[in-house]
Amino acid sequence: DLYRKVFVFRKDPSDAFVLLGARLEQPLQNFTVCLRSYTDLSRPHSLFSYATKAQDNEILLLKPKPTEYRFYVGGKFVTFRVPEGRGDWEHVCAGWESATGVAEFWLNGKPWPRKGLQRGYTVGVEAAIMLGQEQDTFGGGFDFYNSFSGELSDVYLWDMALSPDKMRAAYLSLRLPPALLAWRSLSYQVKGDVVVKARLRE
User: Fold this and answer.
1) Which of 8, 83, 130, 202 is spaced 20 to 30 A from 187 at the CA atom?
2) Which residues does the UniProt record annotate as the domain Pentraxin (PTX) (predicted)?
3) 3.40.50.1260, 1.10.260.40, 2.60.120.200, 3.30.420.10: which CATH number matches 5-191?
4) Are 72 and 51 in contact (CB under 8 A)?
5) pTM for this structure?
């Protein structure tokens, strides 16, 4: 249980990552991924990377610059422009549904205008899921200048599009529905220079 804990990625740039274990039974027609990050990086960095053997950017949450998030599904992406952070934690949720091809993006509990992405696509399940690196091959192929440096927390992946109420609940750390990946019961392996520490403040 990583309640009130964080992963600290100490080095910049870094070859470190955290490998996550999820019990995925079937391909994903819908999903939501949420996490909190705290960093002073201005270069591109990968937050959440989900690769299959067929597609290295099956799901990817990447921050190419301080005023932009990129959300990939099946190798295609949409860009969400955001105000430059004020050196604080940022909570993001990205949701997608295959039937409509609608991609949602929430930053600190507020929704951004929805965009269209990969309608009719299905996300594969033989997945390597990791924090802190962007996979260019299944489970590897890192460019260290896309690595994350800083603190990550509150990582979740659901096999559904969360309702607006639940998106806000994720931001406020309230009760959440059962998830494929849940911070309170996370199966993970640390690879390289990453330390689990108590959160400095709420």
Assistant:
1) 202
2) 3-202
3) 2.60.120.200
4) no
5) 0.97
